[in-house]
Amino acid sequence: MALETANIQERLSQKFGSSVFAFGMQRDIFTFEASPENLHEVIQFLKEDEELNFHFLTDLCGVHYPENDDDHQFAVVYLLHNWVENTRVCVKTYLNANPEVDTIIDLFLSANWMERETWDFYGIVFKGHPQLKRILNMDEMISFPMRKEFPMEDSGRTDKDDRFFGRTVSNKSTL
């Protein structure tokens, strides 16, 4: 029997109630949200339940939404795959301005590097991670470069000329 999205939603709703919500399809992937407090349990259920069988963590990443209210400043997105039924799910959890969520390394060893990269770029703390340290950026960095609180360009640089980047300043006095 094929694994239907309605079955996934029903099993999750029965097990977790209002801790899982906002079910829907986004770009042909069944997507839902889980509360950060129950996220580890939800992902463990998706993996260990014999009917659901989501044994592969495809990806884990962070997102920064500075325009959202304080309780939804950051998101962690998990993409899981059931290879037997060739079914994918996307689990999202939203975090506040001091983002923390439980690690899932005990469920998927591949989450180790993904969580380190997410911390390195967004500052999202994965509680229980055995080695949460910089993976791509310099150890001396004190900021998290993918947060949208920083300008895209360094205004102090003198080696950039806007003319070389197709951005010309209109000066009507030369016309």
Structure, explained:
The longest helix has 12 residues, at 5-16. It contains three helices and seven strands, in the order H-E-E-H-E-E-E-E-H-E. The strands form two sheets. It has a five-stranded mixed β-sheet. A two-stranded parallel ribbon has the order 6-7. It is an alpha/beta fold and 175 residues long. The chain has one domain: NADH:ubiquinone oxidoreductase Nqo5 subunit (Beta Polymerase, domain 2, 2-Layer Sandwich). Helices cover 19% and strands 26% of the residues. A hairpin with a 4-residue loop joins strand 4 and strand 5. The model has no long low-confidence stretch (mean pLDDT 88).
Write the layout of secondary structure elements.
Elements: H1 5-16, E1 20-26, E2 29-34, H2 39-48, E3 56-64, E4 74-82, E5 87-95, E6 100-102, H3 111-122, E7 125-127
Parallel strand pairs: 2-5, 6-7
Antiparallel strand pairs: 1-2, 3-4, 4-5
Notable features of this structure?
175 residues, alpha/beta, Beta Polymerase, domain 2, 5-stranded mixed sheet, two-stranded parallel sheet, elongated
CATH class: Alpha Beta
* Average pLDDT over all residues: 88
Low-confidence stretches: none
Main beta-sheet strand count, sense and barrel state: 5 strands, mixed
Number of domains: 1
Instruction: Tell the overall outline.
Output: elongated
Q: Summarize the helix and strand pattern as letters.
A: HEEHEEEEHE
CATH architecture descriptor text: 2-Layer Sandwich
CATH superfamily: NADH:ubiquinone oxidoreductase Nqo5 subunit
- Counting H and I runs of at least 4 residues, what is the number of helices? 3
Write down how many β-strands occur, each being a DSSP E stretch of 2 or more residues: 7
What is the spatial order of strands in the main beta sheet?
1-2-5-4-3
